[in-house]
Amino acid sequence: MIKNFLKILYLLINKKISFKSPKRCDLVIFDIKSFNDIKYFFEKFDYFILESRLDTLKKIYLSPKVIFYIIKNLSLGNIFTIYMISLLEIVKPKIIFTRIDNSLKFSELAKLCSKKYKFMALQSAVRMDYLYDSHFYKMKEVNFDYNKQIFIPYFFCFGDYEKEKFREINLRINNFFPVGDLQFSDYLQFKKKNPKINKKKDVCLISDYIGKNYNHAYLGYDKLIYEKLNDSRHIRNINFKEGILKLLKYVLRFVQKNNLSLAIPLKRDPKLHPHLAKIEKEYFKNNLNKQEYEYFEKCVIVRDRFNCSSLTSLMNSNVAVGLGSTLLRNKIGAGGKALSCNFVKDEIYNFPIDGVCSLKDCEYEDFERRMLQLLKMSETEFHSKIDKDPGYIMKFQNDLSTEDMIIKKFSEFGVNIKK
After folding, report:
1. 4 or 19: whose pLDDT is higher?
2. In angstroms, what is the C-alpha Rg of the chain?
């Protein structure tokens, strides 16, 4: 009760108050971060944004109607959950849609309100967190199955792999729709509207770095468990750090030795997240020698979310290489060549497809041999030497985009694009 009171007090002091009710709308977008990296999809719809984070919440609706529903729903959860449910009762959407598919708040609302509204989540990243959470629980490293909190009635996923794997670890997802990656679909529209010619690189390295934590899965636990799982002395974390550095050093050595061009798109956009961008750069500076870092700096592509810098670098390369990024799946799904290198000695990071696209911990000579092989072979030959259809990890169709598939599903539930 005291906690709820303090939360209310904080919101009333720090946020803008509106004494009007929100208008009715068929589509609710859950969480402002659903818009990250997406330029064209959302502009096709009218929508109401349902904020789920106090730090991004700008306005609080406090009309008599909202207050009435808050009182009515007092037994349903904490005050913020009650407030969100009350807004939904006024807006009366047909669909609540999010790209934050691992949001516990979204799952909580879906459990409480899925009989009234269609809750639809879109996969926006490779979800290692679900796999790690399942592993931690099975190995008794934690005594709580974090994944039991997840509930997604309708899930737009990358491919059939998620359908298979998430059922295997007993995630509560009622309906799977393999549609691919909306961000990649949006990039293709950006490319059409911005047909500038970019110089093609031989290799694109999808880099990884370690910031405050070793894996996003650790973010779901309390402080004590977080510190235990995130201990830099734990062999799993030591192997992870050494593995991603090993790949980075192999790539730098390989391109210099063979006189090849390299692009390294960074993860963090300095305009949007200057602090995180600084941590990322410092990580590389602290873990590469002087010569390596100087060469690394020449190959870096600074993240620019508004101009699709990562996907542009990816698609303007002959071969992409990395650990297990979504970008590797985009490259293979769209017909290109990519190599997943699991040098972190953890089976969880094994690529879902085997063949020439996958390499486990190895000596530099084995890595060089595979990379030279991939650079020389055609995309057709590459796809003949992998053991599953690319759509298994990333659905992609030239004649039916991810956006088209989502719009079609929306229309089945009465939500249509603007006229």
Report:
1. 19
2. 23
Burial of 151 (0-12, 13-18, 19+ CB in 10 A): buried
Pairwise pLDDT comparison (186 vs 6), residue with the higher score: 186
Write the single-letter amino acid at 88: L
Calpha distance 303→73 (Å, rounded): 43
pLDDT at 211: 80
Tokens 């734990």 identify what position? 234
Compare 164 and 269 and report the one with higher pLDDT: 164
Q: Give the bridge partners for 151, in sequence order.
A: 172
**Gap between the Cα atoms of 295 and 297, Å rounded:** 5
> Distance of CA 124 to CAs 156, 202, 204, 311, 410, Å?
9, 27, 21, 14, 18
Q: What percent of the chain has pLDDT over 70?
A: 95
**pLDDT for residue 229:** 85
The answer on pLDDT for 367 being more than 60 is yes
Instruction: For residue 234, give both structure tokens.
Output: 């734990």
pLDDT tens per residue across span 288-333: 999 999 999 999 999 988 889 999 999 999 999 999 999 999 999 9
Alpha-carbon distance of 378 to 389, in angstroms, equals: 17
Cβ atoms of residues 40 and 189 within 8 Å: yes
Residue 156 · residue 183 · CB < 8 Å:
no
CA dihedral 373, 379, 381, 382 (to 10 degrees): 60
Q: Would you say 388 and 369 are in contact if contact means Cβ atoms under 8 Å apart?
A: no
C-alpha span between 159 and 157 (Å, rounded): 6
